[in-house]
Amino acid sequence: VKSEGPKLVPFFKATCVYFVLWLPTSSPSWFSALIKCLPIFCLWVFLLAHGINFLVSHRSASRILAGLIFSAVGDAFLIWQEQGYFIHGLLMFAITHILYSSAFGMKPLDLKAGLLMGLISSSCYAFLYSYLSGPFTYLVAVYIALIGFMGWRAVAGIQLCNDLWTWTKLSACIGAMLFMVSDLTIALNEFCFPVPYSRFIIMATYYAAQMLIALSAVETRDEEDFRKRS
Prior knowledge:
The protein is built from 9 helices and no strands. By secondary structure, the chain is mostly helical. The protein has one domain (4-228). Helices cover 77% and strands 0% of the residues.
């Protein structure tokens, strides 16, 4: 983790730029879209800096990079959500969660973690249901199922009780949980009631989530290379 820290400096700077400028959401523009997406662009560079061969030979890392690309497109759409692009952003992030789930893999299965995430996801949707109408009744259900599944695959990987966790898996797990907090805050603020400091909560947890998930992809390289040498 320490060796990767300096490579994340551009991401931290770009994130600071976003929060310092704090451009108003009431007047969307390509500049505000650029500022919002800039930290994610930095995470692209962070992964690409480890080499194309690394991304090609490590499918989990390449899928996380693809997820970051779809995330940036989703971020851009959400800049213009009041102009009717909210569903477009929702679709982009749904694809992101599918890619992240694929990167995290299906082993170990951990059905208990799956049941827990299923209960959490079902409870969230049950709460939101009465506030939803039209296509969002179904779209939000599918989206919650996808992010819940992604959360399950991230949580299943840590195996704390069996002492089989690694930093890469813990990073993915925390990142997935923060992503869920960010998206739940969006849902509450969009469909239910105004959430105090919603924008700050959404973006702080979102950027932290994406950084941790990107970092987990890089540590996967070190973990797999160690196994090969052994």
